[in-house]
Design goal:
Number of helices: 27
Radius of gyration: 30 Å
Strand order of the largest sheet: 2-3-1-4
Structural class: alpha+beta
Strand content: 5-15%
Amino acid sequence: MSSYLYRLARFAYRRRRLVLGLWLVAAIAAIAIAQASGGKTNDTFSIPGTESQNAAAVLTAKLPAFSGGQTTIVFATQHGTGKVTDAADKAAIQSAMAGLKAVPQVSVVTTPFQSKLISPSGTIALGTVQWSAPAASVTDASLNAVKAAMAPVQAKGVQVEYNGSVYPGWRVTISETPELVGIVIAFIILMITFGAFAAAGMPILGAIVGVITTLMGITAVASVVTIASASTTVALMLGLSCGIDYGLFILSRHRTNLLNGMTPEESVPLAVGTAGSAVVFAGLTVMIALCGLTVVGIPFLSVMGLAAAASVAVALLIALTLVPALLGFAGMRVAKFTRLPLLGARAERTARRSAADPDSPAGARWARFVVRRRVPVLIGGIALLGALAIPALSVHLGLPGAGSDPASSTDRQAYDLTTEGFGAGFNGALLIVAQDVNRPAATSQMAAALTKLPDVATVTPVTTQNGISLIKVIPKSGPNDPVTATLVNTIRGDRAAIEGSTGAHILVGGTTASNIDVSAKLSGALPVFLIVVVGLAFILLTFAFRTILVPIKSILGFLLSMVAALGAQVAMFQWGWGQHIFGITPTETISFLPIIMLAIIFGLSSDYEVFVVSRIKEEYTRNGDGRRAVARGTGHSARVVTAAALIMFSIFVAFMFTSNPTIKAIGFSFAAGVFLDAFVVRLTLVPAVMAIIGSRIWYHPRWFARYVPDPDIEGQVLDERLAEGALARERTAVSR
């Protein structure tokens, strides 16, 4: 592999104008196609084959007027200033609700006075709007028309807020601020690491080209495939961080070569041939983990994984082609110190030392300490991660709802007002879809049976048409309360008793039931996903390092960092320890977060594993001393791995400053996972374990060496071939 990468990089270096032009054309083409396609992401989470999805399909076929999304309009007056039932307010509400019937995509409008959903105090009332289109398909023009129709009510001093599966939903708006902050922080870290303006800019420039190309491609695909908005965020996070990191690893090796006296034309292909091999295996491991999301069988998660894998693939190609081309344009400037007074005196001294010495003295000291104190270090590291993992034992999965949104948002205010006036259950109604209803009394009979179930507040028959009855069940508990999930399972388990002698067949649907089904499906898919991804990565890492012990150690370390990061997330977001720090409301852990964390943290942990262990293997190949190789290899890789991890950590942290609680939780989890895995596992526990095992960690059977090809991840074969070529040229020159 190293020889192929060497030739690829040499081509990119020599034809750098062509390579740069091709990537710019690709980025411009992706932008043009995305703009022409008009693709948009959405946040509709559904799983084909679940009961809630089957209920939705029945409504679409038999009761299309009730098959779309729903908006709850909450009207509230201040206590002591009147009631919504006062003549003036009532007339304004009725008039405004009547006007909604003319709004496009609206199928059914129910006023609070028709449904009698008025709080005992008379200060809060609920109106409903049933849409003919799915929640994700309701246009902004229709939503704005609803707001415009409510303006006269607000002019009367009545507070109007909106909630439900449609308005405004929890549509994720991607802000450019986190990316910009992450890029600035990455540039500062690279300046401190390399001390050269050109060196700091190369990985960032390549990553930006890759991210633009990927995101525009995802937007274009969104015109024909349903893509969740969170997919764009995850792809952006990984595309930017992996793009910078992969370029950083190649740049670091190139810069070392230049400082050792090589010319740029000699150094660039050699850097890609050596460090590039580690980059390829690291990128492939990340992509395997992300593509593994397809085995879960959940469409939105599969698309999210494939989109993120595409961003990593583009980042990998950028590192192997565009970065060598850019290094060709930069020449020797990447090895020269650039003074930037804004860094400060201390940072400038660090940068100058970095420019003069490619290895990290601090990293070397740390590596020697870990090797010397390997047993206490191993015990202490495991104890730390174990303590952080304890909260993960109480994880409660669910999908985000209005109750977790910022207090200033309209859906959160609607949620709180509804809870105040009627109870939390009114925020998460269950829809019972009864088929084969042949007589009117059947609906009343089933409603009576549902009323007797525990945790049921009210049962309201909505309509009966075409042999289909729609019954609304309001739980006493909130939509994300475990008791509500128990009620859904109870209805499904007792369906025969509820149906009785009616001859009907019931299905439990609605947004709340759908969210419960999604969470259950995700929980069940987690073990399968873990086995598949870990198995494939084990094979890849075994092939890369030609030993079984290194992959086993890598996977065990990943599991420790994964559970510790999940525990930190539960403590901060579910237990509420970070309520004031992050400005959030304590809520359940997002149901798809553990699987996404498994995929991404496993992939990224393999990045650092490959970069650290490949340098250790290089040293072991040279000197054959296991512990000495651990100390030297870890010391050589410490600076660049630290810089890479801090860049990824900074980018993920930047996303925590958005207003969306889902993105905050994702950013925090990824940041915690990367930090713990890079610094506690890869730069501490891994060297400690390898120092304890010693040279035996590189053992493999003889048949393995015979039948499994050597990918030459450390570049030994490439060095030998280059040395032979240099010797042959020298002999030719002497003979002449």
